[in-house]
Design brief:
about 230 residues, binds pyridoxal-5'-phosphate, TIM Barrel
């Protein structure tokens, strides 16, 4: 087994163990492999090990990978855009990705909807919530979710699937859980109102257990699968 296949097995085992500990069905939690900065060859190894959902942060890099794998005939992959999105890059996301996790204003949502090619299914979107209230991070306040969700749900090119958050780094499990719980409550409220809502994208390498215990349905893991990132080449 190569490193990536081995790492994937370990991450999957961790997800299963975390789900089992809180009595959840393992199948409720999707693993999103975050492949930003990693070459196509690394993604190929993950595909060979059974991984199908990949997350990318940078529009240009992500689009190149989507194209590469489509041209290679690998049509069963799911591409998730998880980085900050500027309006001038929205078309690229609308045309190439299957999901966008970082919708945090109507302007971006409207553009994505208009720019989504008519021959593709609606773009799956998550509303990003700034749960730790950090000034530097993107996302809307939890009390703004209802209003934005109502607007997003009306857009024909989009399918509202749920919420996403990147909580501030926190090593204490109880505090991780408390923040994750707030997201789970907001998610449950939204789910009651919209039949399309089924996804809470929450949990990274260091807070995955707490996120799963709180109700996350999608964890985003990069380094633990692909190894440390090298940013010097960017
Ligand atoms: C990079 C990134 C991840 C993965 O982070 P790792 O620490 O490498 O596991 C998850 N979510 C988002 C939004 C990211 O940008």
């Amino acid at each position: 087994m190569n490193d990536i296949a081995h790492n994937l097995t370990q991450v999957r085992d961790k997800i299963s163990a975390a789900a089992a500990r809180c009595g959840r069905d393992r199948r409720e939690v999707t693993l999103l492999a975050v492949s930003k900065t990693k070459p196509a060859s690394a993604i190929e190894e993950a595909i060979a090990a059974g991984q199908r959902a990949f997350g990318e942060n940078y529009v240009q890099e992500g689009v190149e990978k989507v194209r590469y794998f489509r041209e290679a005939g690998q049509s069963d992959l799911q591409w998730h855009f998880i980085g900050p999105l500027q309006s001038n890059k929205s078309r690229q996301v609308a045309e190439h990705f299957d999901w966008c996790h970082t919708v945090d204003r109507l302007r971006i949502a409207s553009r994505l909807s208009e720019q989504r090619p008519k021959d593709l299914p609606p773009l799956n979107v998550l509303i990003q919530v700034n749960i730790s209230d950090e000034e530097s991070k993107s996302g809307i306040a939890p009390q703004e979710v209802d209003a934005l969700a109502a607007q997003v749900a009306e857009l024909p090119g989009l399918r509202l699937r749920g919420l996403m958050a990147i909580p501030a780094p926190e090593s204490d499990y109880e505090r991780q859980f408390a923040v994750a719980r707030q997201m789970a409550v907001a998610f449950a409220r939204l789910k009651e109102r919209y039949a399309t809502v089924d996804t809470l994208s929450l949990g990274m390498s260091d807070d995955m257990e707490a996120a799963i215990a709180a109700g996350s349905t999608m964890v985003r893991i990069g380094t633990a699968i692909f190894g440390a990132r090298d940013y010097t080449k960017r």
